[in-house]
Write a structure and sequence with these properties.
- By secondary structure, this protein is an all-alpha fold.
- The chain is built from 14 helices and 2 strands; from the N terminus they run ααααααααβααβαααα.
- It is globular.
- Residues 1-25 form the signal peptide.
- It is an enzyme of class 1 (oxidoreductase).
């Protein structure tokens, strides 16, 4: 019986990776070279404009790609305006943003190359350029995704997306189920070197952590006091920098490994970030990236390539949406 279960589990894993490899093999960096040769310049310029207008937007656009790929693969489904769909899941509601920027980029691309470029590919390019504009690493984005036709249910979305309230084991499980490992958990968590967090995502640490009646003892005392004041009136939409290291040093929205110094000093905002130190499977990578910024940037770029190729619809699957918010 044990052997049968093990074989069944092994077969499921092999099936997943064969499907992933098949999808990956259909993507190519030069997919639009003939049909939309100026695509990457268009996206890069539009991301720069959005960043110049509001530098928080880089983190928001990067997060859209994360939240798209972890739910039913990188298919642009997070952009769909569907009642009861992904946008309305607890993990996304009043949280993900930047849809208007994506709409604008799509419109510009459509004027240059009508009916050619998928919203899913735009999200993948936007994520890369959002990191670059914050002085992070670049990478070659493989292209050729098509857009999905459905938006997963609220419950399905919340079950798939890693949450600020998840235990480390649950986060690792959610990464593993899409083909990512513990190293990817840590390197991709490093994206929290840019952007903001709402009180709703971390107030659980401030007053009654895990039902103890006390704040989270792993949080730096000065940071705790600062965040308690911010969230004391119950306004869950108040925001603070995810990377508290940066404010005093002029590095706001500058991509780098200072996020890992925060973890080691108890100055991370989210409990899911601080949890990376609770197991040697992840804490060893925290220390490596704290000591070696170049290693972090390289591994982050590699992990983004793998994440960007989670079950992308291609060839006959899906469609090229004219409007990213609805199917054709």
């Amino acid at each position: 019986m044990t052997m049968s279960n093990s074989f069944y589990g092994y077969s499921l894993i092999m099936t997943f990776f064969m499907l992933l490899l098949h999808a990956w093999s259909q993507l190519t960096p030069n997919f639009y070279d003939k049909t939309c040769p100026n695509l990457q310049n268009i996206v890069r310029n539009e991301v720069q404009k959005a960043f110049n207008k509001e530098n928080r937007m880089a983190a928001s656009l990067l997060r859209l790609h994360f939240h798209d790929c972890f739910v039913n693969g990188c298919d642009g489904s997070v952009l769909l305006d569907v009642s009861g769909g992904e946008k309305f899941a607890l993990s996304n509601l009043n949280s993900i943003r930047g849809f208007e920027v994506v709409d604008g980029i799509k419109s510009t691309v459509e004027r240059a190359c009508p009916g050619v470029v998928s919203c899913a590919d735009i999200l993948a390019l936007v994520a890369r350029d959002s990191v670059v504009v914050t002085r992070g690493p670049s990478w070659t984005v493989l292209l050729g995704r098509r857009d999905g036709l459905v938006s997963i249910s609220v419950n399905g979305t919340d079950a798939a997306l890693p949450s600020a309230f998840d235990t480390l084991d649950k986060i690792i499980y959610k990464f593993n189920r899409v083909g990512l490992d513990e190293k990817d958990v840590v390197s991709l968590s490093g994206s929290h070197t840019i952007g903001l967090a709402r009180c709703a995502a971390f107030s659980n640490r401030l007053f009654n952590y895990s039902g103890t009646g006390l704040p989270d003892s792993t949080m730096d005392r000065n940071l705790l006091s600062q965040l308690q004041k911010l969230c004391k009136d119950g306004d869950q939409n108040q925001t603070t920098l995810l990377d508290q290291y940066t404010e005093r040093r002029g590095y706001i929205n500058i991509f780098g490994n200072h996020y890992f110094q925060n973890l080691l000093n108890g100055k991370s905002v989210l409990s899911s970030d601080q949890a990376l130190l609770s197991s040697s499977k992840t804490s060893n990578w925290v220390q490596i990236y704290n000591d070696d910024n170049d290693r972090f940037l390289n591994d982050f770029a590699d992990a983004m390539i793998r994440m960007g190729n989670i079950s992308p619809p291609s060839r006959s699957r899906g469609q090229i949406r004219k409007n990213c918010r609805r199917v054709n």
